[in-house]
Amino acid sequence: MVAAFDNWSVALSVYRRNVGDHAAMLDLSDTCKSVDAISQYEPQMIIGGPPCQDFSSAGKRNEDNGRGDLTVSYARIISEVKPEWFVMENVARILKTQKLVDAKQIFKEAGYGLSFAVLDASLCGVPQKRKRFIMVGKMGENDEFLSDTLQKNLSSKPLTVAEALGGNIDVKYYYRHPRSYVRRGIFSVDEPSPTIRGVNRPIPQGYTLHKNDPVKNLDGIRPLTTEERALIQTFPPDFEFLGSKSEQEQMIGNAVPVNLGTYVGKCIKQYIDSHPQSN
């Protein structure tokens, strides 16, 4: 890694504390400034996750709210800098948006072959049911060049919280606030966690058990701690978060699970190792 950019000062501080000093503030909606800042590094690969709130089921699902435009900005930056490789991550719902159509057109006009898949993180070494859209582009390659690799390396069964955290979690069941009360709010450590979101709410007073909650009462039930949520996102135990409690929860929920990123990286490396003539 030679450089990293974000537009949130707390996230930059966390990156510098844990990864390196090569992180800088940059608003990627300013594509000209971004291209100038990034081009100086002559990157072989650019990896990015444009903000997904305007596409997400947790948001208002309006791709024209503004943040959705950053997907197109990301594509324009890639098309100008022209790294050999790029990786783009987003929520699965982006497949239903015009912004993705626009971004793909920009990538194709710049000369990239594109492979993409919606990956379930629980099949990629993450104890969490979290589906994410992953697109990998390589300059001059055919479309779908990595599609088989992204699928064939998936685990045969989901990873559970208990399998991943072991003794780092001391409850059998825990609470995750549902988006609506037509859904359950209690989950077992013997299944993958639901998606770790950017907020971590307590059990509300008067919570009524859902028919699918796997318990008969709320005795001993609690929300996950910030540290447990980070472990489910597969951050290392010694990874240090900074900022307020709400900022830490938001960073953890917004992050790409570490092991999901590792999975994609290993797929790319497998391709490179098997195609030495094209690299």
List the helices and strands and how they pair.
Elements lengths: L3 E3 L2 H10 L4 E3 L5 H9 L5 E4 L20 H13 L3 E7 L6 H12 L2 E9 L10 E9 L7 H6 L8 H5 L7 E3 L10 E3 L37 H7 L12 H10 L3 H17 L5
Parallel strand pairs: 1-2, 3-4
Antiparallel strand pairs: 4-6, 5-6, 7-8
Helix pairs in contact: 2-3, 3-4
How would you describe what is shown here?
The chain has 279 residues and is an alpha/beta fold. The protein is built from 9 helices and 8 strands. The chain has a 4-stranded mixed sheet with strand order 3-4-6-5. Strands 1-2 form a two-stranded parallel ribbon. Strand 1, helix 1 and strand 2 form a beta-alpha-beta unit.
Q: Note the overall shape.
A: globular
Cα end-to-end separation: 19 Å
Let me know the CATH homologous superfamily of the domain at 34-155 and 256-278. Vaccinia Virus protein VP39
> Any idea of the CATH class of the domain at 34-155 and 256-278?
Alpha Beta
The number of E-state strands comes to 8
Oligomer: single chain
The CATH architecture of the domain at 34-155 and 256-278 can be given as 3-Layer(aba) Sandwich
Radius of gyration: 20 Å
CATH fold call of the domain at 34-155 and 256-278: Rossmann fold
Find the structural class using helix and strand composition: alpha/beta
The residue fraction in helices comes out at 25-40%
Question: Briefly, what is this?
Answer:
The chain has helices at 9-18, 31-39, 69-81, 98-109, 147-152, 161-165, 226-232, 245-254, 258-274, and strands spanning 4-6, 23-25, 45-48, 85-91, 112-120, 131-139, 173-175, 186-188.
